[in-house]
Amino acid sequence: MQDNSHEPAQAQRRFCILCVWFGALAHLSKDSRRVAWAGVLLVPLFWLLDGAIDVYLFGLGEAFHHGLFEMEPVELYMRLLVSVLFVLFGLYAAILLDRAERAGHALRESNAELESLKSELEHLVEADPLTGTYNRRKFHDVLDRAVANAERHDHRFALLMIDVDHFKLINDTHGHQIGDEVLRGVCERISGAVRSADQLFRVGGEEFCLLANVAGGEDIGPLAEKLRKVVAGRPFLVVGNITASIGIAHFREGDTQESIYARADEAMYEAKRRGRNCVVSSAA
Length: 284
Prior knowledge:
CATH class of the largest domain: Alpha Beta
Structural class: alpha+beta
Order of helices and strands: HHHHHEHHEEHEHE
Helix content: 55-70%
Largest sheet: 5 strands, mixed
Oligomer: single chain
CATH topology of the largest domain: Alpha-Beta Plaits
Low-confidence stretches: none
């Protein structure tokens, strides 16, 4: 009588092997699973090819199915061994591919984080920490490029110097914290009123510069007047009404950073001398 007591144990081992196989596949990416299944699909192809070689090349059997199903134990074990190697190789290649994909994904995430940190660092270097506008360092870089473009490509621009009136009195009367709130408020009002192509910079304590593009013979005076009204248009909390004096300097042939800045600064001081809260344009 044949002893079949070992069959349940074999079935359990097969079930465990299948569980391990599908468990491994479940943690792999879609492309990696395809590689693993390719190793499995190679098994029947190998059996068909080996059977065909045995029958048609070596004459081992009268028909194809003889070479496929009727074989010596040694040959059966060899086929099983090669089949297992195909499956294991497919799984190993799938695991390597999955690790490479995960490493590539992690590398892309790291690069994205580095780019974000780089942008944040550049912003910190170029931005004024109080108002969030560009700082004086960035102003000189941008003004230098603007002068160069105006000379080479005739890209005209105007420089507006904006100074908050009686700001020292605000600090002395209400404290620096209120003064900082005023500066932030002035900056927000100006930023909301300028054009998208214009750039605002904080170049001093209460001094701002606006680099405004000028198309053709455009008069930048209305924009400066608009900014003056925006600042004085409604009172600030605690300090009440705030005004600003604005000086304008248009780029002219032969200008340098220093010369156009000096003319804008002089025009702003002329606005101060005229009683503040007004706009003065330097002589062309």
